[in-house]
């Protein structure tokens, strides 16, 4: 386990040395990784930093408002409303790796636009060690590693938590005094709900995944999962009222893990699963059925794409 005070001091020194007298933008998603990286960078170089949160339309329910409230102490925070641009980019894209690359390029374009506006030469990211391992091992591309375009308009990319595992990042978050809503929150993929949608990403599917994930997170809080969410798999027939419908199939996933490198599907009570399916199908008329994923990692990954 990393010695947090020593790590924080060394990380800030590394950031100051890398950025020097230049300006930088911080990719802030609201997850613990990017929040720690952003806080370290902000404390290291202050007003040389412009934190950038990009609302892709693929975020958790209420995420954007939470970001504004949690990081209001960063006066230079910019919230970019980019939903239409990301959905336009993803139109017709069905391959999982292509999705990740499209999203990675979209993020970089947004960051480069802000960087030109504030004359920033550096990009700070919350890449952690498992991101690098999975991208380098061709398990999947992360939007902030393998999903980046080959050429970016930055002098350098700074990744202060690149050698940490998730549990170590949480320790640093607590030491930095970040709120529990950040330090203890479940992991959320950089590409957002796009990797919880099998096939083409559309606003309708994103809404289904977002609302269903919100239900899962609420209902499984007592189980304290490493990660729990809902994914949209495709369509199947169902019955609502007296009508036959062709609605979405939603998969519920809940796993236990230490660092995300391996994971075990949680054993949930039948009554809990029934409550979840009842809420998801009852609260969204376009959902026809709900299934529970019992696959461990390996052979599956935690996310669907």
UniProtKB/TrEMBL annotation:
The enzyme class is: ligase
GMPS ATP-PPase domain spans which residues? 2-185
Q: What is its EC number?
A: 6.3.5.2
Q: Which CDD domains match?
A: GMP_synthase_C
What are the record's GO terms for cellular component? cytosol
Its UniProt pathway annotation is: Purine metabolism; GMP biosynthesis; GMP from XMP (L-Gln route): step 1/1
Q: Name the PANTHER family on file.
A: GMP SYNTHASE [GLUTAMINE-HYDROLYZING], GMP SYNTHASE-RELATED
The name of this protein is: GMP synthase [glutamine-hydrolyzing] subunit B
Report the source organism. Halorubrum californiense DSM 19288
Q: What high-level taxonomic lineage is stated for the organism?
A: Archaea, Methanobacteriati, Methanobacteriota, Stenosarchaea group, Halobacteria
Q: Which gene encodes it?
A: guaAB
């Amino acid at each position: 386990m990393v010695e947090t005070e020593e790590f924080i001091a060394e990380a800030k020194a590394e950031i100051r040395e890398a950025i020097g007298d230049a300006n930088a933008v911080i990719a802030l998603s609201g997850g613990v990784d990017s929040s720690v990286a952003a806080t370290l960078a902000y404390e290291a170089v202050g007003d040389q930093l412009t934190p950038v949160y990009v609302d892709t339309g693929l975020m958790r329910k209420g995420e954007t408002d939470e970001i504004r409230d949690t990081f209001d102490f960063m006066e230079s925070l910019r919230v970019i409303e980019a939903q239409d641009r990301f959905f336009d980019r993803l139109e017709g894209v069905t391959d999982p790796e292509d999705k990740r690359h499209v999203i990675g390029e979209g993020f970089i374009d947004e960051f480069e636009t802000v960087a030109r506006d504030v004359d920033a030469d550096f990009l700070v990211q919350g890449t952690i060690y498992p991101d690098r391992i999975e991208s380098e091992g061709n398990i999947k591309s992360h939007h902030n590693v393998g999903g980046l375009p080959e050429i970016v308009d930055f002098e350098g990319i700074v990744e202060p938590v690149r050698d940490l595992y998730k549990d170590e990042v949480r320790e640093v978050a607590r030491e930095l005094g970040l709120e529990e809503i950040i330090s203890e929150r479940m992991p959320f993929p950089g590409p957002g709900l796009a990797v919880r949608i099998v096939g083409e990403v559309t606003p309708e599917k994103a809404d289904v995944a977002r609302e269903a994930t919100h239900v899962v997170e609420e209902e499984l809080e007592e189980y304290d999962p490493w990660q729990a969410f809902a994914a949209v798999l495709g369509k199947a027939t169902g019955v609502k009222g007296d009508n036959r419908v062709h609605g979405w199939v939603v998969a519920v996933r809940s796993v236990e893990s230490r660092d995300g490198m391996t994971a075990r599907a949680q054993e949930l009570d039948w009554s809990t699963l029934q409550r979840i399916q009842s809420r998801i199908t009852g609260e969204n008329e376009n959902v026809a059925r709900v299934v529970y994923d019992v696959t461990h990692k390996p052979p599956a990954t935690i996310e669907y794409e």
